[in-house]
Specification:
Helix content is 44%, strand content 21%. The protein is α/β, with parallel strands linked by helices and 224 residues long. Helix 1 links the parallel strand 1 and strand 2. It is globular and about 45 Å long.
Amino acid sequence: MKLSIIIPTLNEAEGLPQLLADLYPLCGDDTEIVIADGGSHDGTPALARRAGLPCVEAPRGRARQMNAGAALASGELLLFLHADTRLPPGARAAMHAAIQSGAQWGRFDVRIAGQPFMLKIIGRMINLRSRLSGIATGDQAIFITRTCFNAIGGFPDQPLMEDIELSARLLRAGCRPACLRQHVLTSGRRWESRGVWRTILLMWQLRWAYWRGVPASQLAARYR
């Protein structure tokens, strides 16, 4: 299966060269990288195009950007990768093995980079919760077959919790994720800049409110 790695970006010019350098060994006839930009003003789209990558500009918001990237991509297997997340060695082989074993979608375990020790514990808790619930987060690098992605209508058009809602829709359709043990490494900058405990409390409040039916548009305002 051809793999399309779809990266939503917003002002990622500083870190994009290193990300692409990490991903280039994966590229070839059976793998492509697609940039889905949400209105960067630091030259991110131009940088991507100079690197020879397809780049689509979409309204700001990860859901809309990732849907636009998926529409441009040509692969049968879609991997949605945050710009501050790095794949482990053998990621492509692990995804293909999961799909060949019958999974329609999946995610990786995650490690959070940063100084606070709590970030290690948070990563483990995220992985355990995901394995038990079948709910994946964007930081875990969600992958899905195009057939399955199209069948559920892609990511829901909402400004927050699009990964949670995508997972919930897949579960309702009878599709549980392949929970890969290989770890992606994601930046802990959000946790460190806002405070670890404050961010933990905020995320639990937002998730609880979402499950109670509070619209994602209201939660996005609180998140920002």
